[in-house]
What we know:
Elements: H1 6-9, H2 13-21, H3 24-39, H4 42-61, H5 65-77, H6 86-102, H7 109-120, H8 122-142, H9 146-155, H10 159-176, H11 203-213, H12 216-228, H13 237-240
Helix pairs in contact: 4-6, 4-7, 5-8, 7-8, 8-12, 9-10
Amino acid sequence: MQDSDPIYxxxxxxxxxxxxxxPWEQRRYVLSLCHIMCATPPEVQAEFLDDYTADGLVSRIxxxxxxxxxxxxxxxxxxxxxxxxxxxxxxxxxxxxxxxxQDTRQQPGLYLESALKLVASSKERNSVFNYILGxxxxxxxxxxSWSQHERLYRLQVNQEDFIRAFIKPIQxxxxxxxxxxxxxxxxxFARRDYFVQRPDLQGRRxxxxxxxxxxxxxxxxxxxSIICHPKSFQFEYDVIFAPxxxxxxxxxxx
Length: 254
C-alpha cells in the first residue's frame, strides 16, 4: 500500500500494520465487509455495530468513574429516576447508533464516521455520558406542561437562546403530534386549560419524539454544557413543578 493513498493515510498506524500483515484470503473478507456495510441501510448498520461493539464499549466507558458519578449526581438533581448501570449504558449505546442512523438532518455518510469515532476514541466514548444526560433532560422537558416550560426558561440566563433551542422545538412537536392541542389561544381572556396540561408521554413514544425533534449533536451538546459549565442550565424543581393556580391562565404562549 502507498503512503499517498488517502484511505490508507487516514488509518491509525496499528490498523495499517494489521492490514499489511493480512494474507490475500483475509483481505478478501475485509473487502466483503466494507462492501456490505456501504450497501446496507443505516438502521441495519446500527444493529450490526451494536452487536459487534457494545460489550467492549460499555466496559471502557465504565472506566470513567468520575464522569459517571457526576452524571448520576445531575440526574438526581433533576429528579430523574435513572442510575447508570451497565444495562442502561448498553441500551443507550444502541440508541445512540439508532438516533444517528435516523437523523435525516445529517449527511448519511456521517453516521458510520461517528460510530467509528465512538469505537476508536476514548474522548468520543466518554461523550456517551453527555448524550445520556442531554437525552434524559430533554425527555423531562417533553413531559412538562407549557406553563412549566415558561417557569423553566425564566430561570435561564440566556432565555431567548434557550427558548429557540429547546422550548419552541418541543412545543412544535407537541402540536404536530397532537400531544397538546391549543384551543382559543388567540383569545387573551380564554381559560387555557391546554397551557397547564401535562403531556401524557412515556416509553417508546417519548423516545421517538425526542429522536425526531433533536439531532444527536444537539442532545450531546446539552449534556456536555451542563457537565463542563454547571451554571449553564438553571433548574429549581420546586419552582418549575409548583402547583398550578386554579384561576384562569393569562400567560402569553411562547
